[in-house]
Design a protein that fits this description.
mainly beta; Pnp Oxidase, Chain A; four-stranded antiparallel sheet; binds flavin mononucleotide; Flavin_Rdtase-like_dom
Length: about 210
């Protein structure tokens, strides 16, 4: 039997992407996101308009999409409720966000120079995609003010042990992406870590939360 609960969140489960972008002062910003889908050598990214990353992508027209493995969940969660925007929007303050100019440092992640774009890669991420912004589309509705970015992958860097030897393919048995499902973190089908985002969004989940 189906019911009609009027579900409030539609995050059914998508890979987490750490987007690195360049701030106006030349430093790097880093933001977790998961509203991404892929077609050929392109991706569409859904990003809220109040974030620093959206401003950076509109201005710089480039970014790096870094895909963390599920083992990197702790680093991702550490920057979950941070923004690179100094004037934190009121709505984000209410959710517990704070301004953080050094997200790489807070996450314990390492900047690695890119080859084709100015934003750095995340050295620890097994898959890093250098991208240019092809187009930016307004994406707005009653509960969302966002931008849909079409990006083109210019160069893909992949950890050697994930590549099927002698091919241009990633081995799906070796690649274990960090998945965000209804604001909770999953890897290999299991819940792998408590989620600050779920706390900030006041999710009514029964998952065990550890104190930090
Ligand atoms: C796992 C995870 C997934 C997220 N997915 C998205 C997303 O798809 N789109 C989005 O706009 N924000 C998403 N967020 C929230 C952003 O990280 C948040 O808006 C943050 O302020 C962006 O950083 P920035 O302001 O420095 O750009 C996600 C956060 C987490 C922790």
């Amino acid at each position: 039997m189906h019911v009609v609960p009027g579900i409030k969140v539609l995050y059914f489960g998508t890979p987490v992407v750490l987007i690195s972008s360049r701030n106006p002062n030349g430093t790097a910003n880093l933001a977790p996101m998961s509203s991404a889908w892929w077609l050929g050598q392109f991706a569409m990214l859904g990003l809220g308009n109040s974030g620093q990353t959206t401003a950076n992508l509109l201005r710089e027209r480039e970014c790096v999409l870094n895909l963390p493995s599920s083992a990197m969940v702790d680093a991702v969660d550490r920057i979950a409720l941070t923004t690179g925007r100094a004037d934190v929007p009121e709505g984000k303050v209410r959710q517990g966000y704070r301004y953080e100019p050094d997200k790489f440092g807070v996450a314990g992640l390492t900047q690695q120079a890119s080859e084709l774009v100015r934003a750095p890669r995340v050295a620890e991420c097994p898959i890093q995609l250098e991208c240019r912004i092809v187009a930016a589309h307004p994406f707005a509705g009653a509960s969302v003010q966002a931008t849909a970015f079409q990006v083109e992958v210019l160069r893909a860097h992949v950890e050697e042990e994930l590549v099927i030897p002698g091919t241009s393919y990633v081995d799906p048995l070796r690649w274990d992406p960090l998945i965000m499902k209804f604001c909770e973190f999953f890897g290999g089908g299991s819940n792998v870590h408590p989620s600050r985002l779920a706390e900030g969004w006041d999710m009514p989940h029964q998952l065990q939360r550890t104190s930090r």
